[in-house]
Specification:
- The complex is a heterodimer of chains A (about 180) and B (about 775).
- Chain A has about 180 residues and is of the alpha+beta class.
- Chain A contains six helices and seven strands; from the N terminus they run αββββαβββαααα.
- Chain A has a five-stranded mixed β-sheet with strand order 4-3-7-5-6, with helices on both faces.
- In chain A, a hairpin with a 2-residue loop joins strand 1 and strand 2.
- In chain A, helix 4 packs across helix 6.
- Chain B folds into three domains: about 190 residues, Aldehyde oxidase/xanthine dehydrogenase, molybdopterin binding domain (Aldehyde Oxidoreductase, domain 4, 2-Layer Sandwich), CATH 3.30.365; about 190 residues, Aldehyde oxidase/xanthine dehydrogenase, molybdopterin binding domain (Aldehyde Oxidoreductase, domain 4, 2-Layer Sandwich), CATH 3.30.365.10; about 300 residues, Aldehyde oxidase/xanthine dehydrogenase, molybdopterin binding domain (Aldehyde Oxidoreductase, domain 4, 2-Layer Sandwich), CATH 3.30.365.10.
- The N and C termini of chain B lie far apart (about 55 Å).
- The N terminus of chain B is likely disordered.
- The chains are: A alpha+beta (about 180), B alpha+beta (about 775).
- At the A-B interface, strand 2, helix 2, helix 3, helix 4 and helix 5 of A face helix 1, helix 3 and helix 14 of B.
- Chain B: GO terms for molecular function: iron ion binding; oxidoreductase activity.
- Chain B: This is Xanthine dehydrogenase family protein molybdopterin-binding subunit.
- Chain B: Keywords: Molybdenum, Oxidoreductase.
Chain lengths: ~180, ~775
C-alpha cells in the first residue's frame, strides 16, 4: 500500500501555489523553519524534503558548505549541529530546528582573526582547489574537540570521512596537529 | 569579477619573490567559505535542470512519455530531442571545422549507459529531481560491448600515427640472450573532482553569461558561441574558482549545451548540477588500457630491443587515444624499438583526459617491465635504470634540455635508505608484515603555447594582473602575484590578481602542465613593460624628481623608485603617479611569435590547441622527470597492501613557489597511490553500466591511506623550457607511482601484479 501511494500521479492542480515575481510557483508541502545558524536566527520556508545542505546553499546564501556527492560519501558538506559534525546532505533542514548549527562562515567573523584551524590550513597549504576545504576544516575543529588529534595516525583516521581529491592529506595532518597544539 | 587580496605568510618578505614559499593568496577566501564557486550564484528567477539518462548501453530511444513529469509540481519543461531548439555544431579544440549537421546533446541513438536523453527543468531542484524520476523511456535495445575485456570488443583499430619505430626491434629481440614478455593493464579510472561538474546559464537577449568551473575559459566560450550562433564576445564565462578538474573541465560538454538551451527556451537562468553518479558518464575519465611489452637484453641487463603493442578503449563514436608509447619511447636507451597502438570501440562515454594521459599507463608498463628485467638478470632496480640511462632523447635524437634524473635517483635513494634493501623478494619482514621496497621513474613533457596578460600599475602604487586563465588549485593567483611583484619591484601584498573571466585577456588551456610556465612568461613580459613605462614617466615628466636621469640608472624596489647615485630615500610609485597626474599605467602583452600576431591566429591560439609546441619542437627535448621510492607493507595472511612511506625526487626545473609545487607533486603521488591500490571503474557486463558510480564504491584515497610523503626538488632553471625556467609540475607527480608500488609489492611478496589496482584477491 505504501509503495502504491508513492506511485500515484499527483496532478499539479492539487498542489498549492503562491505568486512570486508574477510567476505562478507551485509548492509542495512547504514548511517554515526557524534555524539557529552561526548564532543568528534564520527563517526559511522550504519543502519538507529539502536537505540542510540545500537549505544552506540554495535558500540561505551560505554557500561555504559544499556539495560533493549528496550521498554522505565525501564529507564536503560537513557542518556542526549542536557541536557535533554531521553531513548536511543526509540531514533534512526540518530535522535541525531547535538545534545549534555552525557552518564554515561562522568559524571566524569577517575581518576577525582566523580560527586556529583555518590559520593552520593556510600556513601548511592543506588544500589546493579549496572545494573540500570547508568540510575538512569543520571536521578538523570537531576532531580536535573530540580529542581525536592525539597522534598523526589518529588524525588520519578521524579525518578520513572527508575526501580530498587534490591530495592535501599530509598537509591536513600537519595543520590539524599544529592547530590541536595551539588549542590545547 | 573576482579580486583576490594578497595575504603574505607571516613576517617573511622573501617569500613574496618568485621562488618564495608564499602561502596561496586565494587561501583566505577558500578557508572561510567566501570563495564563490560557479554553482553558488543565484541570478534572479533561476530554475533547476536535472538530467534523465539512458538505462541501456546500446540501441535507440523509441519514445519518451513525459506526461507524468510535465504534470508534476513545479515542472516548467521536459526537454527531449523532439522539442529542444536546434543547436549548431562547433569547431573542436583541434580546430576541425564543424559539420553542417546540428549538434544534439540529447541522444536518440544510444551508445552508452548514462547518455543524456532528456532533461527536466523545474522551479526547484527537488521538484526537478522528483519529476525526472517520472519520465518514462521506451527503448529498443541492441547488444552492447561492455568494455575492453568483452569478447565482442576484439582487437580494435590500429592507429598508424601512434607507431614509433627505429632499428630492427623484432630482429634484435629474437636474437637477444634475455627476453621477457608480459602484459600490463590499467582499468577505467575517473577524475573525481570533489566539485561535480555543472553550470548556471543566463541569457540577456543574445548575450550569454555562464558560471561554470572551467580549465579553459576561452576554449569553452568559443564552443558555446558557435553552438548557439552568437559572437564570441557575447559569451561571458566566469570561473574564478574551480573545485578540481584533473583534465575533466577543459572542454564544453553535452550537459552545458542542455542547460544553456533550456535557459534559452525558458527565458530564465538555468542551473544544472551534474549528480555524483552522473559524473561517471557525463564525461569520460582515463580509458582502460592493455599493453604487451617485450624486452630484449644482454645477460648483464643492457637493453637491445623494446617491442610494445598496446590498446585503449574508446567510445563508439569517437577516437580517444591514451598514448601508451609516450614514456616507453624516451625513458631508456635502446638501439631497436617498436611501439604500436590500437583503439577498441566499446559502449562507453568518450574517454577523456585524466592526469598525465598517456604517460601514466605508459610508465606503468615500461617501469614494471624494467623491474622484471632487473630481477631476471639479478641487478639492483636502480642500477639497471642507470645502466640503460638515455643520454639523449632516443626517439627525437635530440639532447635533453635538462634531465636531472641521475640526481633524482641519487637524492631519492639516499633519503629513502635504498641501500638497506635485501635483493630477494619476500626477504624483508616485520612480524606479520611483508616489507617491500620498490622504485620507478616518471616523466612528463613540457608543452608550450603562447600566452597573454594585462598588468596595470595604479595610482595608489598597487598592481593588478588580469587573465582569463584559471586557478584550480595549482597556485596561479599566487605565482602571478609573485611574478608581477618581482618584475615591477613592489611588495607582493600590493598585487591583485584577477582570473577566470572571459572578459579578461585571453589564455590557453590550463592543461598538459603548461599553464604556469606560459602565464608567468606573459605576466613577466607585461610587468616589465609596465615597469619600463613607469621609469619612462619618472625620467620624462617635468614634475618628476628623476627628470633627465637615464632609465638604466633607476631602480624600483619595494614600491619605491630611486637612483643609486642619489643617497635620498627615493620616491614611492604612488607619489610618482600623483606628481605626473597618471591614474594608471597599463601593459597588455602576448608572447605570440610575429607570424601569429594577427586577429585570426590570436583567436586560434587561445581557443584551440593547434599552436601548442611539442616537447621536441626546436633544438632540445623538453621534459620533467621524477623517481619514486616506495616502502609497502603487505599483510602476510590477508594480502592487504599499505604504502608505509614514500620518497620522491622530482625535476620540474625552477619552481615558482616550492610550497605550492610540492603540494601539486604530493597530490599527484596520492592520486597514483589510489590508482595503484584502489581505483577501478567496474562495468556490469550484462548492461554496460558503471556499477560503482559513487564515492563509496569507486574508491579514492582517504587520509588514512596516505603516509607521510617526502618530495625533493632536484630541478634547475631550464630556460629552453620556459622564459622563467620552469618545466611541467602538475601531471609529473602521478607518473611512475603505480609501477613503483607494484614493484614494491613484488619485492614484498614475490607476486607480480600486472593489472591495476593491486587488490588483495590478486595477492592471495
Amino acid at each position: 500500500m505504501f509503495f502504491g501511494l508513492l506511485l500515484v500521479e499527483r496532478p499539479a492542480a492539487l498542489g498549492t501555489y503562491c505568486h512570486q515575481n508574477g510567476v505562478k510557483t507551485p509548492m509542495t508541502n512547504q514548511i517554515s523553519l526557524n534555524l539557529d545558524i552561526n548564532g543568528k536566527s534564520r527563517q526559511v520556508t522550504v519543502e519538507a524534503r529539502v536537505t540542510l545542505l540545500d537549505a544552506l546553499r540554495e535558500h540561505l546564501e551560505l554557500t561555504g558548505t559544499k556539495k560533493g556527492c549528496d550521498h554522505g560519501q565525501c564529507g564536503a558538506c560537513t557542518v556542526h549541529v549542536d557541536g557535533e559534525r554531521v553531513l548536511s546532505c543526509l540531514t533534512l533542514a526540518a530535522q535541525v530546528e531547535g538545534s545549534t548549527i555552525n557552518t564554515i562562515e561562522g568559524l571566524s567573523a569577517p575581518g576577525d582573526a582566523l580560527h586556529p584551524v583555518q590559520a593552520a590550513f593556510l600556513e601548511h597549504d592543506a588544500f589546493q582547489c579549496g572545494y573540500c576545504t570547508p568540510g575538512q576544516i569543520m571536521s578538523a575543529v570537531a576532531c580536535i574537540r573530540e580529542g581525536h588529534a592525539g597522534s598523526d595516525d589518529e588524525i588520519r583516521e578521524y579525518m578520513s570521512g572527508n575526501l580530498c581529491r587534490c591530495g592535501a592529506y599530509p598537509h591536513i595532518v600537519d595543520a590539524v596537529r599544529e592547530a590541536a597544539k595551539e588549542l590545547s | 569579477m573576482t579580486i583576490v587580496e594578497t595575504r603574505a605568510k607571516r613576517g617573511d618578505a622573501a617569500d613574496g619573490a618568485l621562488g618564495g614559499r608564499l602561502s596561496r593568496i586565494d587561501g583566505p577566501a577558500k578557508i572561510t567559505g567566501l570563495a564563490d564557486y560557479a554553482l553558488e550564484h543565484h541570478p534572479q528567477g533561476m530554475v533547476h535542470a536535472v538530467l534523465v539518462e539512458s538505462a541501456i548501453a546500446s540501441g535507440r530511444v523509441v519514445s519518451i512519455d513525459a506526461n507524468a513529469a510535465e504534470r508534476a509540481p513545479g515542472v516548467l519543461l521536459v526537454m527531449t530531442p523532439d522539442n529542444a531548439l536546434p543547436i549548431k555544431s562547433a569547431t573542436d579544440w583541434l580546430n576541425t571545422p564543424p559539420s553542417d549537421a546540428p549538434y544534439e546533446p540529447l541522444a536518440r541513438s544510444i551508445t552508452f549507459a548514462g547518455q543524456h536523453i532528456a532533461a527536466v527543468i523545474a522551479e526547484t531542484f527537488e521538484q526537478a529531481t522528483a519529476a525526472a524520476a517520472l519520465v518514462k523511456v521506451y527503448y529498443e535495445e541492441a547488444p552492447a560491448i561492455a568494455g575492453l575485456d568483452d569478447p565482442k570488443a576484439g582487437d580494435g583499430m590500429p592507429l598508424d600515427r601512434m607507431t614509433i619505430e627505429w632499428g630492427d626491434a623484432h630482429g634484435a629481440l629474437a636474437n637477444a640472450p634475455i627476453r621477457i614478455k608480459h602484459e600490463y593493464r590499467t582499468p577505467r579510472e575517473y577524475n573525481v573532482p570533489i566539485e561535480p561538474h555543472g553550470l548556471i546559464a543566463e541569457w540577456k537577449g543574445d548575450r550569454l553569461t555562464v558560471w561554470e568551473p572551467s580549465q579553459w575559459i576561452d576554449g569553452m566560450a568559443r564552443t558555446y558561441a558557435e553552438w548557439f550562433d552568437i559572437p564570441f564576445e557575447n559569451v561571458e564565462l566566469r570561473s574564478p574558482y574551480i573545485g578540481g578538474g584533473f583534465g575533466s573541465k577543459a572542454l564544453a560538454l553535452e550537459h552545458g549545451a542542455i542547460a544553456i538551451n533550456a535557459a534559452r527556451m525558458l527565458g530564465r537562468p538555468v542551473k544544472l548540477a551534474v549528480t555524483r553518479a552522473q559524473t561517471f558518464t557525463a564525461y569520460g575519465g582515463r580509458p582502460a588500457t592493455r599493453q604487451t611489452i617485450e624486452l630484449g637484453a644482454t645477460r648483464d641487463g643492457k637493453l637491445v630491443s623494446i617491442v610494445q603493442t598496446g590498446a585503449n578503449e574508446t567510445s563508439m563514436k569517437a577516437v580517444q587515444v591514451e598514448p601508451l608509447g609516450s614514456v616507453t619511447s624516451i625513458m631508456y636507451a635502446t638501439p631497436n624499438f617498436s611501439s604500436r597502438q590500437n583503439v577498441v570501440p566499446v559502449n562507453t562515454v568518450k574517454p577523456g583526459a585524466l592526469r598525465a594521459p598517456g604517460e601514466n599507463p605508459s610508465a606503468f608498463g615500461i617501469e614494471c617491465a624494467i623491474d622484471e628485467l632487473a630481477y631476471e638478470v639479478g641487478i639492483d632496480p636502480v642500477q639497471i635504470r642507470l645502466l640503460n640511462y638515455a643520454e639523449e632523447d632516443p626517439h627525437a635524437r635530440k639532447p635533453w634540455s635538462t634531465r636531472r634524473l641521475r640526481e633524482a635517483y641519487a637524492a631519492g635513494a639516499e633519503a629513502f635508505g635504498w641501500s638497506a634493501r635485501q635483493p630477494k623478494p619476500r626477504s624483508m619482514r616485520e612480524g606479520n608484515q611483508l616489507i617491500g621496497y620498490g622504485v620507478a621513474a616518471g616523466t612528463y613533457p613540457v608543452r608550450r603555447t603562447p600566452g597573454e596578460a594585462l598588468v596595470r600599475i595604479l595610482g595608489d602604487g598597487s598592481v593588478e594582473v588580469a587573465s582569463s586563465g584559471i586557478d584550480m588549485g595549482q597556485g596561479t593567483y599566487t605565482i602571478l602575484a609573485q611574478t608581477a611583484a618581482e618584475a615591477i619591484g613592489v611588495p607582493v601584498e600590493k598585487v591583485r590578481v584577477k582570473l577566470g573571466d572571459s572578459s579578461l585577456p585571453r589564455a590557453p588551456v590550463a592543461g598538459g602542465s603548461q599553464f604556469a610556465n606560459l602565464i608567468t612568461g606573459a605576466v613577466h613580459k607585461a610587468a616589465l613593460a609596465a615597469r619600463d613605462e613607469l621609469i619612462g614617466l619618472a625620467i620624462n615628466d617635468p614634475n618628476s624628481p628623476f627628470r633627465d636621469l637615464q632609465a638604466n640608472t633607476l631602480i624600483v624596489e619595494n614600491g619605491v623608485i630611486s637612483s643609486p647615485r642619489d643617497t635620498g630615500a627615493g620616491v614611492g610609485i604612488a607619489e610618482i603617479m600623483q606628481r605626473t597626474g597618471r591614474e594608471r599605467i597599463e601593459a597588455l602583452r602576448d608572447t605570440l611569435p610575429e607570424n601569429l600576431r594577427n586577429e585570426k591566429d590570436h583567436f586560434r591560439n587561445f581557443t584551440t590547441i593547434t599552436t601548442m609546441l611539442s616537447p621536441t619542437d626546436g633544438d632540445y627535448s623538453l621534459h620533467s622527470w621524477c623517481v619514486h621510492f616506495v616502502e609497502v607493507r603487505v599483510d602476510a595472511d590477508f594480502g592487504t597492501v599499505r604504502v608505509a612511506r614514500m620518497v620522491s625526487a622530482l625535476d620540474s626545473g625552477r619552481l615558482y613557489n616550492p610550497k605550492l609545487a610540492e603540494s601539486q607533486w604530493k597530490g599527484g603521488i596520492i592520486m597514483g597511490i589510489g590508482q595503484a591500490l584502489l581505483e577501478e571503474g567496474i562495468v556490469d557486463a550484462r548492461n554496460g553500466r558503471v556499477m560503482n558510480n559513487n564515492l563509496g564504491d569507486y574508491l579514492v584515497p582517504t587520509n588514512a591511506d596516505i603516509p607521510d610523503l617526502k618530495v625533493i626538488s632536484v630541478g634547475i632553471p631550464d630556460t629552453h623550457a620556459s622564459v622563467l625556467g620552469g618545466k611541467a609540475v602538475g601531471e609529473l607527480g602521478i607518473v611512475g607511482v603505480a609501477p613503483a608500488i607494484a614493484n614494491a609489492v613484488y619485492h614484498a611478496t614475490g607476486v607480480r601484479v600486472r593489472d591495476l589496482p593491486i587488490t588483495m584477491d590478486k595477492l592471495t
